[in-house]
Amino acid sequence: MFRLALGIIFGLISLGTLLNSESFAESEWYPGINLEKGDYFKYDFCHIDYFECRSQELEFLIINETQNYWYIQTIVTDQKTKIDEVLRLSKNEMKFIGSGHTMRQLASVFNNSLVWLNNFSNQDTPKHLKLGEYWGQIGNIGGGVPFTTGGNEMILINSNSIEATVVNWPLSNKTSKIWIVKDYPFPIKAETFVHIGLLPIQYEFELIEHKKMLKK
User: Fold this and answer.
1) What is the pLDDT of residues 35-51, one digit of tens each?
2) Between the CA of residue 7 and those of 13, 17, 116, what are the distances in Å?
3) What is the pLDDT of residues 73-99, one digit of tens each?
4) Rounded distance, CA 105 to CA 47, Å?
5) Per-residue DSSP letters for 68-123?
6) Residue 2 located in a structural domain
7) Does residue 194 belong to any structural domain of this protein?
8) What share of the chain is helix, strand, coil (3-state, %, to 5)?
9) pLDDT tens digit sequence for 136-155
10) How open is the CA angle 150-119-155, to the nearest 5 degrees?
11) CATH number of 207's domain
12) Stated pTM of the model
């Protein structure tokens, strides 16, 4: 009787793990999913088109929203400069919009990194997170490079270990990767390389903190 009960318990645990894994695999994701007023994000961030990938601390706070836009308090800090301005994020196109030269430059950098996946997975046509899901093809000299989901990895967010899906694509002897957590509106982590030359870092970022700051 004891062995039978033990077997049932282990069976239920295994089934729960399987169901959880299958539920994760069937999840759909796109940039902006579940984004709300009051969301606060802090990233370590760099991009080759912004001070040649000099390390930055990036903070986003969703301070307001309308039918078409989120308004985001944006703070970018490094050892030499600090920028504190408001960007708009289009709900329909998931594109950052800034005023003035510096904020337009930052908006372009964020569009080509944090929300770049919206070109392939968006609210109208979200992609699944299951293993081997084809997400699209990236233009490259000599032909396009397909990128797919390459499995799950555990990643730390706010000191908690959370399962993330890795979207990746090969470039020469390196592989570019973006880590996604199914309920988070922006990717959690990225390490990507340029398509030509000596394959320097194109952009990389990692979420340091996420929390709710404002009441709805």
Assistant:
1) 999 999 999 999 999 98
2) 10, 15, 47
3) 999 998 888 999 999 999 999 999 999
4) 11
5) SEEEEEEEEE-SS-EEEEEEEEETTT--EE-SSHHHHHHHHHHHTTTTGGGGTS-S
6) no
7) yes
8) 20, 45, 35
9) 888 654 567 888 998 899 98
10) 35
11) 2.50.20
12) 0.84
Q: Quick check: is 117 in a domain?
A: yes
Buried b (16+ CB within 10 A) or exposed e, 81-109: eeeeeebbbbbeebebebeeeebeebbbb
Tokens of 46: 């760099």
> How many domains, in total, are found in the chain?
1
pLDDT tens-digit readout, 167-201: 999 877 788 999 999 989 999 999 999 876 666 89
Range of the domain at 138: 36-212
Which residue type sits at 81? T
Beta bridge partners of 149: 167
